[in-house]
Amino acid sequence: MDRSFMTTALKRCAVILAMLFAFFPIYWLFATSLKPFEEWAAWPPVWLTDNPTLQNYRIVFFPEAARAYAADQAGSLDYKVSGSAWKAFQDSAIISTCATVLSVTFGTLAAYSIVRYRTGGENYPFQFLTVRMMPPIAVVVPIVALFSVLRLSDTYIGLILAYTAFTLPFSIWMIRSFIEETPAELEGAAMVHGMTQLEAFTRITLPLAKGGILATALFIFILNWSEFLFALVLTSGNVTTVTLQVANYVSASSGKLYGVQAAMGAISTLPVIFFGYIIQKHLVRGLTFGAVKQ
Amino acid sequence: MSEDVKNQTGGDDTIAPPASRRRLIPFNVALVLPAQLTVMAVVVVPTLIVLWLALTDWQPTQGVPWWQADMIWFWNFVDLWYDERFTNAVWRTLFVVAVCIVIELALALGLALLFVEEWWWKRVAVSIIILPMMIIPVDAANAFFMLFNDLGPINHLISIVTGEPFQFSWLSHPTGAMVPIMLCEIWQWTPLMFLMVLTGLMSLPQNQVRAAIALGASPARIFRRIMLPLLSPVIGIAVLIRSIETFKIFDPVYILTRGQPGGATETISMYMYNGAFVYFRMGYIAAAALIVLVLVVSICLAMSRSLKRYS
Question: How far is Cα B199 from Cα B47, in angstroms, rounded to an integer?
Fold first, then answer.
């Protein structure tokens, strides 16, 4: 046993400790979602349940079961939670998908123009970042005012517009970094052979940057799916999202519905984890606006 | 349009570019137009509305539409100046940003140094460690809500370690509640910092490090004198981006405490949410929004200036 072996062992132990810290809250979320009612708020807390049940997931998706169950065991349920989570998943899917398509389309067009034509000069792309710099809560008040005039509050279109605008900086900057990696010479050659500018873009550069654009789309979808503040402020019951549903369970439970709340949390975050691992190698690029590449 | 152009250029047999090449709007400008218009719609228009609302006393509960609200000129700003809840929220937010960024950076640097070498389960370890940044922020807060509950595992762990029964109501304690809020933020975003620093570390030129080792420099010295200066652009970007994002912190506060008890855990975003959508003082909060916008823009400009000087 020499010293270098000891330091290596210590280093690996530190890594394992970090893994434990990273994993534990997620473990707790999933573990609680499988606990039966009696173990939700037991003392000492149940670290690993002996009788796992899917009852909590059933309550999430079938509110009739929830109401009967709540009346039966867990006390009164908040009225907000009487809606099935299906509605939230459906709305989130519609809004996130539409906003992603819009954001990535607009982003690709703008990024291409910025890279190939230096549109607007060197500082032009930075103005898109201002959207990301300012706290959304600061623009939420005027957006509410504006939406009330345009009759967009509590509609799909309203949320889609807000999501599109607030993910645009990410899509422009991320796609820009991908397009910068494609050679400009090919397009020049194509145009010499009679392609128009548009054809050169759609038939030469777009196929080359396809992978990057797809990764960006998944990244934007994750952002949209996870968004909370706009959903909270711009809706009032007609439209709902998974994040709102989670928040409703938390505020409704105040210690009574841990299991159901955990089930909703676990199931709502699964798609995002899945997509996250697909684009793992592009995550840093996305979250740093293309500044740091893996 | 194309007909006009043809007439002016005298038909197809001139040397002028064909009509199809001449457009009302140049090709490249047309491409940025959709993005530009969307950004204008959510930045310029709302900013104009905020400028108006900040001068009014609009409260939607009074039944007056916002464009007819009473002008009260600059009284909102005067009130904000003396509003301790607001100034406290501002200082609290800056405190949260400072503490979270420092801890995240320290943890990320330490972790990244552990990951410079290769071993067989390294990829698995990275995948697990970055799990927190993959999940929905609201769900991260949800998990911490359960961890820090009176009957949660954190209290249980403390009881086991100290050997005495420990029951602390983290989430309803005025200062104690800041712990789960900040821990949640740190837990979720240290992985991003870690990935950024690791990316920077892996792309460092190895020659200088090897030369320093050959000359007998200690690891601590190599880290401080060679790695840290070379890493500073990456660290600068990481700190800038994370500061901006942490400044906006809302989701964990909303889920864990909603700024309770008595506004003791309110950050700027939470304060403004409560003001606008719990007390419905829209005009007042618009004035606060204006102040925050000016604050953020000036801080960002200052930080990006110093970042540019770095690189």
Answer: 37
Residue A196 and residue A202: Cα distance in Å, rounded? 10
**Contact, A136 vs A166, CB < 8 A?**
yes
- C-alpha atoms less than 13 angstroms from C-alpha of A254 in its C-beta half-sphere: 9
| CB neighbour list of residue B272: distance below 8 Å, 6 or more residues apart | A137, A138, A141, B285, B288, B289, B292
User: Which among A7, A137, A274, A294 is the top mutation candidate for probing chain B, defined by the most B β-carbons within 10 Å of its own β-carbon?
Assistant: A137
Phi (first) and psi of residue B56, to 5 degrees = -115, 175
Residue A231 in contact with partner chain B when CB distance is under 8 A: no
Q: How far apart are CA B216 and CA B193, in angstroms?
A: 31
B248 CB burial (10 A radius; 0-12, 13-18, 19+): buried
What is the number of alpha carbons within 13 Å of residue B260 lying toward its C-beta?
Answer: 11
Place of tokens 């109401």: A67
- ipTM for the whole complex: 0.88
Tokens of A7: 């330091």
Say how far apart CA B210 and CA A59 lie, in whole Å: 60
Rounded Cα gap, residues B227 and B113, in angstroms: 10
Q: Show the domains of chain A with their CATH numbers.
A: 82-287 (1.10.3720.10)
Q: Residue B306 corresponds to which tokens in the numbers above?
A: 């110093």
Which ranges of A155-293 does DSSP label H, i.e. alpha helix?
156-179, 185-192, 197-200, 206-226, 229-234, 242-253, 258-278, 280-287
Domain boundaries, chain B: 2-53, 75-310
Tell me which residue has tokens 């606990």: A35
- What residues pair up with B56 in beta bridges, in sequence order? B71
Burial of A28 (0-12, 13-18, 19+ CB in 10 A): buried
Q: What is the pLDDT along chain A (294 residues), one digit of tens a residue?
A: 577 888 889 999 999 999 999 999 999 999 989 888 777 777 778 788 888 888 888 888 887 766 666 666 555 454 445 577 888 999 999 999 999 999 999 999 999 999 888 888 778 888 888 888 888 888 888 998 888 888 888 899 999 999 999 999 999 999 999 998 888 888 888 888 888 888 888 888 888 889 899 999 999 999 999 999 999 999 988 898 999 988 888 776 554 678 888 898 999 999 999 999 988 888 888 888 777 776
Tokens at B226, concatenated: 């060679």
Q: Do B250 and A228 touch (CB under 8 A)?
A: yes
Length of chain A: 294
State how far the Cα of A121 lies from the Cα of B201, in Å rounded to an integer.
Answer: 32
Candidate from A137, A172, A284 with C-beta closest to B273: A137
Q: Residues 171 to 230 of A: which have CB under 8 A from any B CB?
A: 172, 196-198, 225-226, 228-229
DSSP B201: H
Burial classification of residue A51, based on how many CB atoms lie within 10 Å of its CB (0-12 exposed, 13-18 middle, 19 or more buried): exposed
d(CA B81, CA B78): 5
Q: Which CATH architecture has domain B75-310?
A: Orthogonal Bundle (1.10)
Cross-chain Cβ contact A233/B273 below 8 Å: yes
Cβ within 8 Å of residue B258, ≥6 positions away: A251, B270, B274
For the whole model, what pTM was predicted?
Answer: 0.88
